[in-house]
Amino acid sequence: MELNTPEELEETCCSSEERKSHHSDKVKNNLTTRLNRIEGQIRGVKGLIERDTYCDDVITQLSAIQSALNSVGKILLEGHLKSCVLERIQEGDEEVLDEFLVTVKKLMK
Which pTM value belongs to this model? Predict the structure, then answer.
């Protein structure tokens, strides 16, 4: 899911005073749905391990979970870049670029 409309971007924007994000209801619902699905997948993997399922099958499921987590991270990163980071740069706060690069490195581990 991309955040394309100005309303979605505006609602995602974080205040430099509060440092808190404000996601639209649409984005929150999307992220919550994705995280609920991931939670179910993790419970499923736990069950696979408890039933001594073949390792390759478990690893395949772990790969799917990692991909789903990456998708959540991409949505959050896009919203952060298009709102919080942009706003802080427009306010003259260029330190946010270093913060953003650290965040990207964390996601790429």
Answer: 0.78
Instruction: Give the separation between CA 23 and CA 25, rounded to whole angstroms.
Output: 6
Contact by Cβ (8 Å): 35, 65: no
The packing angle between helices 55-79 and 25-50, to 10°, is: 160
* Closest-CA residue to 63 (of 74, 52, 53, 55): 55
Reduce the DSSP state of residue 108 to 3 states and report it.
coil
pLDDT, one tens digit per residue, over 5-25 is 545 544 445 544 567 777 889
DSSP letter assigned to residue 24: -
Q: In angstroms, rounded to a whole number, what is the distance separating the alpha carbons of residues 9 and 102?
A: 22
CB atoms within 10 A of CB 102: 9
**Contact in structure between 67 and 37 (CB atoms under 8 Å):** no
DSSP 50-86: HTT--HHHHHHHHHHHHHHHHHHHHHHHHHIIIIIIH
Distance CA 97, CA 40 (A): 35
